[in-house]
Amino acid sequence: MRIPAHSVCTAIRDDIVSGVYERGSRLTEELLARRYGVSRVPVREALRTLESEGFVVTRRHAGACVAEPTEQEAADLLEVRMLLEPLGAARAAQRRTEAHLKVLRGLVRLGQERARRGEGEDLRSLGGWFHETLAQASGSPGLIALLTQLRHKIAWMYAVEQPARPVDSWAEHGAIVDAVARGDAEQARALTAQHAERAAGAHRLRRPDRPGRRTAPPPRVSSSQHGVNIAGARH
């Protein structure tokens, strides 16, 4: 069975974001194909996609390499996200479904519970799921794709500190959902802009590690995709 290029692309992107491949390191088709257990064809397609996303660059005499973003490029990403996330929330207030609201409210309940218990790692995952679902509720494929790409690149370039008062942070999430549920686009936009601005202050640039420090066992790429399941989220 042929493994689709987007599955290979996801696997390589995840490894770049997690630091398996250091910035500036070469990405050869042969080694990547062997690592992920696929042919070179989906690897080649995946590298083209990752280059269009800014994770990979092609250098003369070196071929495909992991990109090395500048501090200004990293700062621009946060600024762009602070513009797009409020737009997504405003559209979500106009286009969300009951299924989206059910997931968002469930995530807020879980987030508030975990915040009271001080379970930081769970909060990080729940926060990512919350913002992904909010973007999906916008009903705009182009905007969803942009926000997804921004999320991956920001996770690659930044480490995020936990908020000093996570209970307050999840109260902000709850207020955003309330505005979306009421269909109040302007309030959803304003609350999300305030939340995004505060969250940006918790981001700290990652400093590239020395080459060769990280290793990982060769993964196999699954042909199945695991998007957010709007109908099947647990509460």
From TrEMBL:
GO molecular function: DNA binding; DNA-binding transcription factor activity
Lineage: superkingdom: Bacteria
InterPro entries (alphabetical): GntR_C, TF_FadR/GntR_C, Tscrpt_reg_HTH_GntR, WH-like_DNA-bd_sf, WH_DNA-bd_sf
PROSITE patterns per the UniProt record, alphabetical: HTH_GNTR
SUPFAM superfamilies: GntR ligand-binding domain-like, Winged helix' DNA-binding domain
Keywords: DNA-binding, Transcription, Transcription regulation
Region (Disordered), start-end ranges: 195-235
Entries under CDD domains matching the protein: WHTH_GntR
Pfam families reported for this sequence: FCD (PF07729), GntR (PF00392)
HTH gntR-type domain location: 2-69
PANTHER family to which the protein is assigned, alphabetical: GLUCONATE OPERON TRANSCRIPTIONAL REPRESSOR (PTHR43537:SF24), TRANSCRIPTIONAL REGULATOR, GNTR FAMILY (PTHR43537)
Name assigned to this protein: GntR family transcriptional regulator
Organism: Streptomyces arboris
